[in-house]
């Protein structure tokens, strides 16, 4: 969203020019003009798609992908899981290309309508950019040169992007600026998040069930016959495996100190990268919010004289209290409140501050200074990032050497280590477990692990090994040299295991009966009454609060959903994990009006931005009817997208 742009991209003209490409739709720059890195050799000289007379080149598409990744990481709070799936990678590529198309369509629309910003207009716009001015407001050429150099920009690029910004301002930016979200949507959102549930609940583990008598031999034999699969020894296969992954190739690489220093400098210049390692100043605060200035003045005076927060709450019961621990300035719901919290010294109380919802007074409990990661502290992680990045690029190049080595080694014992392949061997079952029951130490992620197991159990004994290549470039070869067939264990040899399984089932059944009886009683009179005087009463969790604003992670998702969605007075019985849960909603409560008002205001801004972006994108797509797309090269699109995302994944340690 436009409202999510960082300070650099909102308040600086240079930032606006750099971000122009993504202002037309949903993309927001997370770093410099080059997003997460510079150019990539070998991707030039062709056309991904043509719009009118304009061509989108592989290099231009590459930069758009990098910007899209930076935006997606920012929107996902730093998470990069979307890079791990083919669907996520395709979505990144399509979004990046769509936004490039809209950029060119908007520019063509401006030209068709007679808009032609001349050199003098562009010169005036550039000279008026505050980023290029000295404190007195005069254009400073030296300052411009420094900023362009630090952002890898040339004069020509600045001129072209300024011209595009002017075209965009004239053809698209103003469209939809006055749009406002419907009040009904905001009312629904406020009602949805503004109320929480008060819940009584109890968890009854299966192990609590009481078994009155021990099983007879006949019962155990019958249980054994009915559950033969539980007492069967699986087939084990002994295999020799050689694997080559980006991680194993990385271990063969050496990174020079010069490269490490250069990478550190690049990370610190890129806001998205720097945010992974540096942290802003954090503050823990107490806040009291009231509706009028006079009350706020009295609270501030008493607080400054040493009266405690708890005492003030008793004295002013209508004041709304709030606490924040290790909060950033953006975590506070109101800009004025954030400024007051970060302008006040540690241990001091602020003067009353006017907010959107009234008046507030802030007590700063503690301050954690901003942290800046030094080169020495990041040296090892940078080395790992660079080796992963380079290993990803080298992985395909080394596949030929790997295939030749496998072809020349029938027993897989002559694979050279310097190509980044490593051997392992052992026995495992079809679930990937060792004979002792623990998981086999197979390399790679879950996908590679499953591929290895599948190959071991599909390949014939002593069949010559061959290279299997995975979509991410990882490769392996397998030699199965021994097979131990599975067999049914005799009852006599597993009698104790049968008894343990029988008792576990009996305890679970007893717990289910007990939970059902309590559930039936709770439906009539509530869970608290149903457990009164019972042995399970000590396990009851009373008056637990559940809110959509602060989802709890100490209960399973199924229980959380029941706590939030049931009506007052309802009780649910649920099986989750190794126990039964009884969940009874006893009441509800309202969230802080100040917090809800702040959330409403934030969502109003975000929704207005979303509607505006939708309208602007619709306008941009309508231009395609005048200048339709031609010559889309799907093969080149996929090649550029995969190569760029593989490079980025390597940097982020995703391979």
From TrEMBL:
Residues 255-380 form the PpiC domain. This is Parvulin-like PPIase. Keywords: Cell inner membrane, Cell membrane, Chaperone, Isomerase, Membrane, Transmembrane, Transmembrane helix. It comes from Bombella favorum. It is a single-pass type II membrane protein. The chain crosses the membrane at residues 13-34. InterPro entries: PPIase_dom_sf, PPIase_PpiC, PpiD_chaperone, Trigger_fact/SurA_dom_sf. One of its GO terms (molecular function) is isomerase activity. Belongs to the PpiD chaperone family. Pfam families: Rotamase_2, SurA_N_3. PANTHER family: PEPTIDYL-PROLYL CIS-TRANS ISOMERASE D (PTHR47529), PERIPLASMIC CHAPERONE PPID (PTHR47529:SF1). It is found in: Cell inner membrane.
């Amino acid at each position: 969203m436009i409202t999510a742009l960082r300070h650099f991209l909102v308040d600086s003209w240079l930032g606006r020019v750099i971000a122009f490409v993504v202002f037309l739709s949903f993309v927001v720059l997370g770093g410099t003009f080059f997003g997460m890195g510079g150019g990539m050799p070998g991707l030039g000289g062709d056309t991904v798609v043509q719009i009118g007379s304009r061509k989108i080149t592989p290099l231009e598409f590459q930069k758009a992908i990098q910007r899209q990744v930076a935006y997606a990481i920012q929107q996902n709070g730093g998470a990069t899981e979307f890079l791990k799936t083919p669907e996520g990678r395709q979505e990144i590529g399509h979004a990046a290309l769509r936004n490039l198309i809209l950029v060119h369509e908007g520019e063509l629309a401006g030209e068709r309508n007679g808009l032609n910003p001349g050199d003098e207009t562009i010169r005036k716009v550039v000279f008026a950019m505050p980023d290029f001015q000295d404190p007195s407001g005069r254009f400073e050429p030296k300052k411009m040169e420094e900023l362009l150099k630090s952002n890898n920009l040339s004069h020509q690029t600045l001129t072209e992007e300024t011209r595009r910004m002017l075209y965009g301002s004239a053809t698209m930016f103003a469209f939809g600026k006055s749009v406002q979200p419907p009040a009904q949507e905001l009312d629904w959102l406020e009602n949805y998040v503004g109320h929480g549930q008060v819940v009584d609940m109890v968890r009854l583990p299966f192990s609590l069930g009481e078994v009155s008598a021990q099983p007879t031999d006949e019962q155990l034999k019958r249980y054994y016959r009915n559950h033969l699969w539980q007492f069967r020894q699986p087939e084990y296969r002994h295999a020799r495996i050689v694997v080559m992954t980006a991680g194993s190739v990385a271990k063969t690489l050496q990174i020079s100190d010069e490269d490490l220093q250069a990478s550190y400098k690049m990370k610190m210049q890129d806001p998205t990268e720097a945010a992974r390692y540096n942290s802003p100043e954090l503050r823990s605060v107490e806040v009291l919010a009231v509706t009028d200035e006079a009350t706020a003045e009295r609270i501030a005076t008493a607080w400054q004289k040493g009266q405690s927060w708890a005492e003030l709450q008793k004295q002013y019961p209508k004041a709304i209290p709030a606490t924040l621990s290790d909060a950033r300035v953006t975590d506070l719901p109101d800009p004025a409140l954030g400024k007051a919290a970060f302008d006040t010294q540690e241990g001091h109380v602020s003067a009353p501050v006017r907010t959107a919802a009234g008046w507030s007074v802030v007590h700063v409990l503690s301050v954690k200074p901003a942290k800046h990661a030094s080169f020495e502290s990041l040296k090892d992680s940078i080395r790992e990032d660079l080796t992963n990045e380079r290993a990803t690029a080298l992985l395909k190049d080394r596949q030929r050497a790997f295939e030749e080595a496998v072809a020349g080694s029938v027993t897989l014992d002559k694979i050279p280590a310097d190509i980044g392949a490593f051997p392992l061997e052992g026995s495992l079952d079809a679930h990937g477990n060792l004979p002792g029951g623990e998981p086999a130490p197979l390399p790679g992620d879950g996908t590679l692990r499953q591929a290895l197991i599948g190959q071991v159990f599909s390949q014939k004994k002593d069949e010559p090994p061959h290279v299997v290549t995975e979509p991410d470039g990882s490769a392996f070869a397998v030699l199965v040299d021994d097979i131990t067939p599975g067999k049914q264990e005799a009852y006599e040899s597993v009698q104790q295991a049968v008894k343990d399984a029988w008792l576990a089932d009996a305890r679970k059944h007893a717990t289910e009966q007990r939970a059902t009886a309590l559930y039936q009683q709770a439906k009539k009179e509530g869970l608290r009454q149903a457990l009164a005087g019972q042995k399970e009463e000590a396990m009851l969790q009373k008056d637990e609060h559940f809110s959509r604003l602060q989802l709890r992670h100490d209960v399973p998702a199924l229980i959380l959903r029941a706590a939030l969605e049931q009506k007052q007075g309802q009780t649910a019985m649920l099986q989750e994990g190794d126990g039964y849960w009884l969940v009874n909603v006893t009441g509800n409560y309202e969230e802080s009006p100040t917090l809800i008002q702040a959330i409403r205001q934030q969502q109003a801004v975000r929704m207005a931005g979303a509607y505006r972006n939708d309208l602007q994108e619709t306008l941009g797509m309508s231009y395609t009817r005048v200048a339709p797309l031609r010559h889309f090269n799907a093969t080149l699109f996929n090649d550029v997208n995969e190569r760029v995302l593989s490079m980025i994944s390597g940097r982020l340690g995703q391979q």
